[in-house]
Fold this sequence. Notes:
The chain is mainly alpha-helical. The chain has helices at residues 3-13, 25-32, 37-44, 57-62, 72-88, 113-121. Helices cover 48% and strands 0% of the residues.
Amino acid sequence: MTSQVLIEQIASAFANVERWDGVTLHQAIALDSYASDKAVAAARLQDTDTHWTEIQRVTLVDFESALSFMDEQGTRYYLPAFIAVFCRMRYGQNNREQGFEPLVCTSQEPETLYDCRVRRTH
């Protein structure tokens, strides 16, 4: 099975999933930072997506630890987005490195993760 087929199956299986009142990406990071209730509520307002397919890959890269701080509904909503991103990942020659950095590169595949990081910072 190719990653594209898997992504299509994920999209189909999670097509009707809604976040409802589940924890959002920004809320999860605020919770991780022990933010006040007011700050956590304000963080929620930053997540304006209405379907998990709208979430930009770079956002998932920046919030890769967010799932650890979500409730069940938030996890169910964001999990397919993270899985789809993971399926699109490609590692360069240095396979020891982990993370989502390759996803923020241009459409050209990086030779290594280092190349990707260089592109991200320039």
